[in-house]
Write a structure and sequence with these properties.
By secondary structure, the protein is an alpha/beta fold. The protein contains six helices and twelve strands. The strands form two sheets. Strands 1-2-3-4-5-6-7 form a seven-stranded mixed beta sheet. Strands 8-9-10-11-12 form a five-stranded mixed beta sheet, covered by helices on one side. Helix 4 packs antiparallel against helix 5. The longest helix has 18 residues.
Length: 268
């Protein structure tokens, strides 16, 4: 189930939400980014890596949403990194005595019994300002930004021209905004995140969104532009002209329109 998208970079896609797990191969083993999401899928991924003779030597969570901070015993005890804010968010969840019940409530009912939660959220925060993942492999730059969730980060595999975008630049999901707390500006923060991705887009040949299809070449900047146009329409109170919404939405993904309706009510 692993598909190579660039030299030494492979993707494993989960079925339900099209979550993309990214594998970067190094001399000593593999860096595993956002593994998921069912136990069977993670076991399959572990078998594929074993077949390549590459143990997992490091992990990274792009942000603290439930489907990006999963892990399985089959991956071993490699360090699992995230930004310091990502680790703080998952740590806050794990500090609650009823966290297993809270985590289980977030799972889609179709897979609620199939997602292993024993190792949920155990992320080691990298010091603020850390620019690269500490591992023995290709240089992987950390691009932290405020869009979508606290401590969100994209990864740029510099030698391979691959951008791991986390929950951004999807061809099936519109931009999904953080909760408004009164102290933040979710639309403005998302636009900042897009600016930071746009700043490295010239070095990118392939983009891997957290959900959806891999994009190549001119699709990278096209997806940035589409997300930016959606946000401007939302902020201005206009109906966005977006292929991920309405009659042009991919069959089976029409429910993304409900996400837009909620965001239009909150932020329009």
């Amino acid at each position: 189930m692993l598909t190579q998208i660039a030299e030494g970079v492979l993707v494993h896609r989960s079925e339900l939400l099209r979550n993309n797990t990214v594998v970067v191969l190094g001399a000593a083993g593999a860096l595993l980014v956002d593994p998921g999401i069912t136990g069977e899928e993670m076991a399959c991924l572990a078998r594929d890596l074993a077949g390549l003779g590459r143990p997992v030597v490091a992990g990274f969570a792009t942000h603290p949403d439930w489907d990006h901070v999963l892990w399985d015993v089959a991956f071993g005890e490699a360090p699992r990194y995230g930004t310091d804010r990502c680790a703080a968010a998952t740590g806050a969840v794990l500090s609650e005595p009823d966290w297993p019940a809270r985590a289980a409530e977030m799972l889609p009912p179709e897979i609620a019994g199939d997602v292993p939660l024993d190792l949920y959220g155990r992320v080691t925060g990298l010091p603020a300002g850390t620019s690269r993942i500490p591992w023995e492999g290709p240089a992987v730059r950390i691009i932290e930004h405020p869009a979508h969730a606290p401590g969100h980060a994209a990864l740029l595999v510099e030698e391979r021209g691959v951008l791991v975008a986390g929950d951004m630049l999807s061809d099936v999901f519109i931009p999904m905004l953080d909760d408004a707390t009164g102290d933040n500006d979710p639309v403005g923060e998302y636009l900042v995140g897009l600016e930071r991705l746009d700043a490295v887009a010239g070095d990118v040949d392939v983009v891997v969104p957290g959900h959806g299809s891999v994009g190549r070449g001119p699709e990278v900047r096209a997806r940035i532009a589409l997300d930016r146009a959606y946000l401007h329409a939302l902020r201005d109170g206009r109906e966005p002209d977006d292929p991920r919404l309405g009659p042009s939405a991919e069959p089976g993904w029409e429910w993304v329109g409900d996400i837009h309706a909620g965001q239009a009510q909150r932020f329009g």
